[in-house]
């Protein structure tokens, strides 16, 4: 729910609050919104700048970096990590919580580069993989880089409690699961066998990540900061991709896929997490696209879909009309921690 200053002024005009309370309440709400979760103009710039900087030391590293292997790359990586930590401390001292979360995440993102450089320096890195391959290829030899990144992220989160760090945790856990799969692959297996295995691992790791996000959500339901957002985002992405790219000739399996996506939409509405609704909506669209092939010469199919869409809109109207009574009925049957989470949301 978004509240404007005009809403407070209207409440004062109706005698719901004292007119002298409007400015104080608005200042309080403005301060909470400035530091709370959301995507306002300044927040978009913070995240855009942070993602560009993080990408510069991870996704967009070029082959030229390997010419600097050893001490030069190690010192450069440590220097960039130091800059990230230094900026984090400075921003926190100024009360700038969101940019401090972005800069400490940037510092943690340099850890794979630092570990790779150290491994090269002491002569333990062997093989044809380069640092530029870390985000491109699955290989069990990335373990040390991934474990070090998780350790650094844990320390950073313990020290600063910044939610953005959990984005790296979720992505690194995904990488780690894929590299673990590489250990159990044996010679002679077909590419499709390993593709299906990796897809299933992605799906189950996505479920576990969503479960972790929900647990974090419950534990932090009274916090002003949204610690579960990035875990939900990556977890739902992994689960949905693993499920969507499953090949099946069974129409029943495809129908179950659609039902799961519908469930995701309702879960998103209940938890007030748009990421579930977005991917659930995409999944329903995928299923409808599949159905359209069976009705490509039918005039009734688009009409039927339009009617279903209008019925869904009408269901939304009915829900809004009876929302208070339905919510009260549902809340009375929920566990107390879940009620606290939904009330807070």
From TrEMBL:
The keyword Ribosomal protein does not apply. The chain crosses the membrane at residues 44-65, 71-88, 100-122, 142-158, 165-185, 197-216, 228-246, 252-271, 276-293, 299-319. Keywords: Membrane, Transmembrane, Transmembrane helix. This is MFS family permease. The lineage of its organism: Bacteria, Pseudomonadati, Pseudomonadota, Gammaproteobacteria, Natronospirales.
